Inverse folding.
């Protein structure tokens, strides 16, 4: 049961990086084979939706996650830049995406989240962002082995599916 929940969360969470249509292509066939008595419809974001303090409770973990991913000074600089040039992008990225998806850790821990993000980003042909999130994986206490594993896996998946990846920085060069 935990693996199915983990898989659904990994696909859902990375849909913010590669798009909802692709996540539906992955999730709908999975849903089609799950018998009604085996459906796990729980969701940490849904269950906290009407909690009066939910937004406040997300603020500090979100800040810590973003600061760890970037380092605190760089994170503050990025938040400032996004807000200065396009406040709605600030609202979308650090506020909404990080608060509700990236920093939420009841199903995927920060290392698992970053591994999923790195794989999705590599397959989306975004080498600079793949570098940022690989560094973030290691800053979240992921190992070099885990970083290499996810790079190798994502590159193999990209190759098998004809995805362009761009010039991905090797883990040993980070």
């Amino acid at each position: 049961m935990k693996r199915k929940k983990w898989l659904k969360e990994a696909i859902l969470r990375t849909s913010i990086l590669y798009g909802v249509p692709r996540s539906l292509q992955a999730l709908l066939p999975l849903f089609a084979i799950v018998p009604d008595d085996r459906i796990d419809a729980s969701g940490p974001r849904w269950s906290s939706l009407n909690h009066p303090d939910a937004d406040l409770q997300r603020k500090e973990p979100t800040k810590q996650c973003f600061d760890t991913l970037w380092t605190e000074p760089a994170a503050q600089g990025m938040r400032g830049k996004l807000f200065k040039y396009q406040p709605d992008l600030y609202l979308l990225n650090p506020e909404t995406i990080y608060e509700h998806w990236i920093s939420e850790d009841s199903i995927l821990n920060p290392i698992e989240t970053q591994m999923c993000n790195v794989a999705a980003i590599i397959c989306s042909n975004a080498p600079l962002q793949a570098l940022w999130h690989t560094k973030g994986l290691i800053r979240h206490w992921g190992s070099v082995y885990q970083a290499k594993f996810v790079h190798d896996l994502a590159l193999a998946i990209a190759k098998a599916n004809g995805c362009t990846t761009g010039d991905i920085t090797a883990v040993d060069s980070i």
